[in-house]
Amino acid sequence: AIDPRRLWESLMETARMGGTPKGGICRLALSAADREVRDWLRDACTALGCTMTVDEVGNMFAFRPGRRNDLAPIAFGSHLDTQPTGGKFDGVLGVLAGLEVLRTLDEAGYDTNAPLLLVNWTNEEGARFAPAMLGSGVHAGVFDRAYADARQDRHGVCFGDAIDAIGYRGTAPAGSVRFGAMFELHIEQGPVLEAEGRTVGVVTGVQGMRWYEVSMTGREAHSGSTPMGLRADALLAAARLVTEVHAIALAYGPEAVGTVGSLEVTPNSPNVIPGAVRLTVDLRHPDDAVLGAMEARLQAAVRSLSPDAGLEVLSAKIWDSPAVRFDADCIAAVRSGAAAAGLPARDIISGAGHDAAYIARIAPTSMIFVPSAGGLSHNEAESTTATECAAGAQVLLNAILAYDRA
Amino acid sequence: AIDPRRLWESLMETARMGGTPKGGICRLALSAADREVRDWLRDACTALGCTMTVDEVGNMFAFRPGRRNDLAPIAFGSHLDTQPTGGKFDGVLGVLAGLEVLRTLDEAGYDTNAPLLLVNWTNEEGARFAPAMLGSGVHAGVFDRAYADARQDRHGVCFGDAIDAIGYRGTAPAGSVRFGAMFELHIEQGPVLEAEGRTVGVVTGVQGMRWYEVSMTGREAHSGSTPMGLRADALLAAARLVTEVHAIALAYGPEAVGTVGSLEVTPNSPNVIPGAVRLTVDLRHPDDAVLGAMEARLQAAVRSLSPDAGLEVLSAKIWDSPAVRFDADCIAAVRSGAAAAGLPARDIISGAGHDAAYIARIAPTSMIFVPSAGGLSHNEAESTTATECAAGAQVLLNAILAYDRA
Ligand SMILES: NC(=O)NCCC(=O)O
Ligand SMILES: NC(=O)NCCC(=O)O
Questions:
Q1: What does the record give as cofactor (chains A, B) (predicted)?
Q2: A271 lines ligand 2 (CB under 6 A)
Q3: How far is the CA of A132 from the centre of ligand 1 (A)?
Q4: Using the 8-state DSSP alphabet, how is residue B152 labeled?
Q5: A315/A172 Cα distance (integer angstroms)
Q6: Residues in chain A closer than 8 A to B191 (CB atoms)
Q7: Measured between beta carbons, which residues in chain B are less than 8 angstroms from residue A152?
Q8: Average pLDDT along chain A, 406 residues, taken 10 residues at a time
Q9: What single-letter DSSP state applies at residue B50?
Q10: Secondary structure letter of residue B154 according to DSSP
């Protein structure tokens, strides 16, 4: 049995790395705070005698030998990067619960049949470098290393330079660290488990998600002396698109969601009609066909804005992660793991993207969810109790051992 | 007669201070580029034997004695700060044409009756520190020094610290440098003169203008796992307000304008529902009563957004500059100055705010406009020809001499 208190202490200790006054974490991928928590994880794993491998996009793999090293390792983990207004659990829980699994086995002197592999995937959030799930995506062959290196943050800093700067460019070629299956524990980030009073979500899949970058180019002009009819106002066009994204989500039923999360105005001065706006659109639905229809309506909206006097509106799809169904054996291992722990569970589809969604393309994979208070995530007030965190870690251990036995 | 070529050379020489690749100027108030052009102006004025006085908010006054130093000086000038995407003429023309007036008189050995005073007003644009016309506003007693010092830019830097940093905190108390009248030459920044083929606008007044800062506070949450009905999306509320500001301007006739020029999103991440937005609203109309009606409708829109689930929308009026009518004698001096130069002129009301609008509260004041190609301003492509600039400077000289004689 895992040690709830040790797990919680690890969560609280690392939460200081990038910790915010409001009790959250701002630990953007490849920032100084990310380096700090990576160093901490490396030291914690090597202290257990694990071998740490870092690949060329910064994914970290802690290897614990098994009794039969001819078997492919069983992987588990998640990510240590956060949103700018991130909470203390999103991603972090999956990695530190994985560490708790290793510590528990170590203490018990338990050797699994297959080797184990604790993973910290680079830049899962996509907050600093779009798209999300970049490290796991490179590992799974969805993106190549050159594509990853070229991603830029808002200030024009490249992923490749940022990884060199924090010293986490490893030598292992991307995708070279092999494993036979992966389990990822994560907070739900939605309201379902809490509303139903269940502690564990047996995640059977992930909905489809697509990101678009839209740029509107108008004409800067004086706010006081330029008649309304002579304007090409990029922000007015952007505002119309924001309301249209909302309308699209409402039009495709309760499972559809649509969000404009980032928007930047140039030159951003009170008395200048905005000459340019860049924004991102995030559309999601569990059914890829419905998502396709939502995308078509978005594109129609983009086209309908362009003919406005002097305005040019361009959109590019920057991310397309199709709906995923997880592996039946891995799902069964999680379900039995929850039952063994005597925890109330239900099947659930993830609304958020996860590294597991890409890893499912190359290995049997599934996920475990624990509740998020108020369904809140990507928010400094994100909250999951110590008991729920411990329950998740216990189910993770149970699932790994069940899979290892089978 | 002024020297068109010397004037143009001054314009082009100083345009390099903060010059942009697209041929504009980014010379925000109290920036390093602002210091550079201020030093240049100080040296140019002292080379003519003028005495330079700087007041405690950085307004610069170059004094040229007259034959009768018991008379109050005649002031003229404008501002050297620009928008982030500023052109080469907005403000700069008024200061450098004033310098050209001094140089012309010097060369001709002409002594006016009253002393002359060339002025560079601090932070006219309001782009870095809202509100606009801050230096002239302090001089005219509209704002006090403490208010000016406390203004903050987007990065939280105070006006007071910024002025100390560039070394332009003078010793003269604000408002202590007195003068008997002021003339300001400026580009029109609108389409009227060009459309009618006239070179000179005899500016009879300035329309009313008000700025508001609106903040929307919602709740950060995950874009993928938060159902549409559980969101408090600050950007969606902001988008509705942007389209409403546009509708308000259209509803109050062809003279009304309304603009959201700056807008900032927090945390600004593609997969986070925006938790907070701050934006500015700029409403203008030549008739203060109509402007009051526009404001009432804006406030109603702000109120109607608040009841949205969990959203708080607050607005504050941060600037209120009522409509201004300039002094009849100063207007007559400009009109006669244009006639003496044989230039086609027309009366015009300014759509933009100017330092002259505040100075009109304490001294007889008027303005001269020259055309802006395509009505374009606050844009790096802002364009006024060398001939038009020279025409404006000549009318400025003529108007000063006419006023001095009368
Ligand atoms: N779990 C999580 O927040 N992942 C980020 C990718 C997404 O936007 O869903
Ligand atoms: N002339 C000018 O652009 N002034 C800035 C103040 C305003 O917004 O009108």
A1: Zn(2+)
A2: yes
A3: 7
A4: B
A5: 36
A6: 226-227, 230
A7: none
A8: 98 98 97 98 98 98 96 98 97 98 98 98 97 98 97 96 98 97 97 96 98 96 94 96 98 97 97 97 98 98 80 95 98 98 97 98 98 95 98 98 96
A9: P
A10: T
